[in-house]
Specification:
Keywords: Hydrolase, Magnesium, Manganese, Metal-binding. This is NUDIX hydrolase. Its cofactor is Mn(2+); Mg(2+). Residues 27-232 form the Nudix hydrolase domain. One of its GO terms (molecular function) is hydrolase activity. By secondary structure, the chain is an alpha+beta fold. It has one domain: Alpha-Beta Complex (Nucleoside Triphosphate Pyrophosphohydrolase). It has helices spanning 10-20, 86-93, 97-115, 134-144, 150-157, 212-220, 228-237, 243-248, and strands spanning 5-6, 29-40, 44-52, 63-64, 67-69, 81-82, 120-121, 160-162, 166-173, 182-190, 204-210, 255-256, 259-263, 266-270. The strands form three sheets. Strands 2, 3, 4, 5, 9, 10, 11 and 12 form an eight-stranded mixed β-sheet that branches. A three-stranded antiparallel β-sheet has the order 1-14-13. A three-stranded mixed β-sheet has the order 6-8-7, with no helix packed on it. A hairpin with an 8-residue loop joins strand 9 (166-173) and strand 10. Helix 6 (212-220) packs across helix 7.
């Protein structure tokens, strides 16, 4: 049995072409994703997931965390910033200060765009308590169409970016064989008091608050489609009882990049070292 994810037959030719130098792999775009967590009185630790619509080019039908690509304008903006500096985030993720700033801003911006959860507040010790209403929706739409930068959004509303509410968690890179590739840093954050996560993304058709262990179980039964990085993250989080436990957990960020190989004539995605349990045996 092969420890890996069996790929469609057409991927074999692409693997061979890349290995032969006939085609160049696509460059991976810097991206950020945020695992928003909450403590539920009955169910314990829960994570917020969105199911991507089946018409999406990348990961259709998969349950994912909020996130997306960076906006280069975020790396140049002068922001009201509370918490670890871009240099500290860069050290955690082994990135330049500019890229680290872009990643943190993308993490907070994309989470707001897709869920209305906003990790920012009028002071360094507060967060906004409600992001519903027509004025917030207008700003969200402006962020989506990039007519408003994230820095402009925060400045206009007089908000401080609360980077102290985030923690670094993981780093995954899409395999070379894929036609769309992302260099994604994973963050974790607790759900701010007074806010509500909502289904506002046009890229999702369903959302769920779920215990990490339950999400892993549903994936194992074939009920939910979870990509390996999402499955690995949820499996790790299943070992914690509260949001505070997760945020206090020490993390050494290691880059994980699955590799596409041809094994016994078939194309497989082979897991990175230490993540074998998150890939089916085919």
């Amino acid at each position: 049995m092969v420890n890996g994810l069996k790929l469609p037959k057409e991927m074999r030719e692409r693997i061979e072409d890349i290995q032969a130098g006939k085609i160049e792999p696509v460059s991976a775009r810097d991206a950020a994703t945020v695992v928003v967590l909450r403590d539920h009185a009955r169910y314990g630790l829960q994570a917020f997931l969105l199911r991507r619509v089946v018409s999406m080019d990348f990961a259709p039908g998969a349950y994912v965390f909020p996130g997306g690509s960076v906006d280069p304008r975020d790396g140049e903006a002068v922001l009201a910033w509370s918490g670890p500096s871009p240099a500290e985030w860069g050290a955690a993720f082994k990135a330049s200060e500019t890229v680290a700033r872009e990643l943190v801003c993308a993490a907070v911006r994309e989470t707001f765009e897709e869920t209305l959860v906003l990790l920012a507040g009028p002071t360094e010790a507060s967060v906004v308590d409600d992001t519903r209403g027509e004025d917030w929706e207008a700003d969200r739409q402006a962020l989506l169409d990039r007519s408003l930068s994230f820095g402009q959004f925060l400045d206009r509303r007089g908000l401080v970016l609360r980077t102290d509410l985030l923690r670094p968690w993981a780093h995954w890179i899409t395999p070379l064989v894929e036609s769309k590739r992302y260099d994604t840093r994973f963050f974790v954050a607790g759900m701010p008091d007074g806010q509500r996560a909502r289904d506002v993304s046009t890229e999702a058709d369903q959302v769920a608050w779920v215990r990490p262990a339950e999400a892993v179980e549903r994936a194992s039964r074939g009920e939910w489609f979870l990509m390996p990085p999402t499955l690995a993250t949820l499996s790790e989080l299943a070992g914690y009882e509260t949001v505070a436990d997760v945020l206090a957990a020490p993390r050494e960020i290691v880059v994980h990049e699955p590799v596409a190989k041809i094994i016994d004539g078939e194309a497989y995605l082979v897991p990175p070292e230490g993540k074998e349990e998150h890939y089916p045996k085919g």
